[in-house]
Amino acid sequence: MFGTAYRLVVAGLLAVAFAAPAHAQLSRLVMPGKTVEAHAEFENDCGACHSGNSEAVQDALCLDCHTAVGTDIETEQGFHGRFEAAVRNTCVSCHSDHLGRDADIVGLDGGTFTHRFTDFPLAGAHASAPCGACHTPSTPHRDASTACVDCHRDDDAHRGGLGESCGDCHDSLLWSNVTFDHSAFGFNLVGGHAGVACQDCHRDYQFDQAPTSCNGCHAVDDVHAGSKGSNCGSCHSVNTWSGISFNHFAETGFALTAGHGGLACEACHSQPDYKDAESDCVSCHAADDHHQGRNGAVCNDCHNTTAWSNYDFDHASTGFDLVGQHADVTCTGCHREAKAADAPTECIGCHVADDVHTGQLGTDCASCHEASGWAASLSFDHDLSAFPLIGLHATTACGACHESHRFHDAGTACIDCHANDDPHEGSLGENCASCHNANDWGVWSFDHNTQTDFPLTGSHASTDCGGCHGDPDVALSATPTECVACHRRDDPHGGEFGPRCDQCHTTGSFSERRQ
After folding, report:
1. pLDDT tens over the chain, length 515 residues
2. Alpha helices for 382-464 (secondary structure H)
3. Closest Cα partner for 366 from 381, 383, 378?
């Protein structure tokens, strides 16, 4: 809007102003605006910041005051030394002045600023931290401290006890992430120690004062109450407090084998000093001793440490070898009393309830039975009894004569078994053997001449038994011997000469008369 003449005048005035020693007053006349508050002291001295039209000279004037920025550029540190545009461009290309006292000539935009061009790239949790968390209004951004402790002093659980180099152990991702090499201090964290929180051992956060002896941390866990000393590692391992490596046999002479190996110390040792335990079995197993002490205190004569129910006892050493079915019988099957010596050795001592003979055959069951089975291979010799088995009796089943196992109840008389087979229906008495024998019931042999008082002579010898013994109501032994008893109908005398026919007649023929 101004003419060419005006512009020429102003240009001439500026040339004169910068060339003449008294140009300050004129400079104020052409100054585009007030400087920012920080440059207000130089507002009347244009030459402090401006030198003709040379950009290089003007940048040098800036760096004369801003020496730290100049150092950053030279050493390629900080934002001005790392950001390529800051190194390449002039100062005024980013930081214009004469915009007023309250103007912001820095032009920092926290939302777009890239912190990676600084000496402190934002990583981990720092990347999401607000600018004001580290940068305060009273301190230039470049002067913000990069030391962890300057921001995290209030978070320092160690209270300065480990110095100010937090990054030696912690990382920027999470404050609780710790990468401290504990082994570098002579105490390697292995086993159960590896997962322990720092404060479990370093309770006051004075880490250089934490004890290194087991007892220093585990005194409260010491069930021995100090009686075993402070070197817990002589028995325990770092993997677990209950993991014990104590060599019980080498130290005590009592080897912990099988079932004893898995027991807690307190199962045998009731006192913290472990000096109360005895080595004899019964001192721990008295309550388990179903023998009630009657077999002594040396339990391992029969039992072993694998299991209380496992035992290894040679029963043959007692004189009673366990063979057959006896081998599978439990101890209490015979030893019902607590003391083993109380068990009987005779069969009936255990088998009285099984004795179907009710004691009739005595107590020596083994005379007929054997241990392989109660009913197996019976070997009774009947010939040694009062009734030897001959003839058909030898093949007859036991039950045919012995209706029960009370064998002595069986009668020895023929009629006891053969009453139903007696065609005489008892008329000849009960002594069947006087005629019959054991070979066959139908085979019999009776000598009337010697076995009775009535010899069979003459025609009597060939007469059928029923000829005289025809009356079933009359026993054979009661059969009359008078002639007339059979020959009354044959008596031509009509009884006139009495009943003694043999006084005249003979047995050869009724018609024969005596001479």
Report:
1. 444 544 444 444 444 444 444 444 555 566 788 999 989 998 888 888 887 767 788 888 999 999 999 999 999 998 998 888 888 888 888 888 999 999 988 888 878 888 888 889 888 888 888 888 888 888 888 888 888 888 888 888 787 878 888 888 888 888 878 788 888 888 888 888 888 888 788 877 667 778 888 888 888 888 787 877 788 887 888 887 777 777 787 777 788 888 887 787 778 887 777 777 777 888 888 888 877 777 777 887 788 888 777 777 788 888 888 888 888 888 777 887 766 666 788 888 888 888 888 888 878 888 888 888 877 777 788 888 888 988 888 888 888 888 888 888 888 888 888 888 888 777 777 888 888 888 888 888 888 888 888 898 888 988 888 888 877 777 777 888 888 888 888 888 888 888 888 888 888 888 888 76
2. 398-401, 414-418, 448-451
3. 378
**Do the beta carbons of residue 248 and residue 256 sit within 8 Å?**
yes
Cβ proximity of 509 and 500 under 8 Å = no
338, two tokens: 């607590």
Phi and psi at 258, nearest 5°, equal 45, -120
CB 339 within 8 A of CB 295: yes
Helix, coil or strand: residue 437: strand
CA atoms lying within 13 Å on the CB side of residue 84: 0
Only one residue has tokens 């026919």, namely 501
The rounded distance, in Å, linking the Cα atoms of 225 and 384 is 81
What secondary structure letter does DSSP report for 440?
A: E
**pTM passes above 0.85:** no
Query: Residues near 21 by Cβ (< 8 Å), separated by ≥ 6?
Result: none
Cα separation, 365 vs 351, whole angstroms: 9
What's the alpha-carbon Rg for the chain, to the nearest Å?
Answer: 67
Angle between helices 55-65 and 67-75 (to 10 degrees): 110
